[in-house]
Design a protein that fits this description.
Aminopeptidase; alpha+beta; 23% helix; five-stranded mixed β-sheet
Length: 87
């Protein structure tokens, strides 16, 4: 689920959900790659944001492996990460 607001412009990945039986098979990596390709083509896209709820089984390490960085911000009880799209 992507929040795609070219008027802001802000692009926020709300959730990426891969069933447990299909995790570790590359589907998440490929989905992120396709999403980044899409967002880069959107008006004034400079970053892709995502958030996660910290704790056991959080997707933190997955997102960091995809190039996301910690922003130091939280949104309610979720940690916000950014993926710069300048490269």
């Amino acid at each position: 689920m992507l929040s795609d607001d070219p008027d802001a412009p802000e692009y926020f990945l709300w959730r990426l959900m891969i069933g447990a039986d299909y995790q570790g098979m590359g589907f998440g990596r490929r989905a992120i790659a396709l999403l980044v390709e899409y967002v880069r083509a959107r008006p004034a896209a400079r970053e892709l944001l995502v958030s996660y709820h910290p704790g056991p089984h959080s997707p933190r390490d997955f997102y960091l492996k995809q190039g996301f960085r910690d922003t130091g911000r939280t949104d309610e009880d979720e940690v916000v990460l950014t993926l710069p799209l300048d490269g």
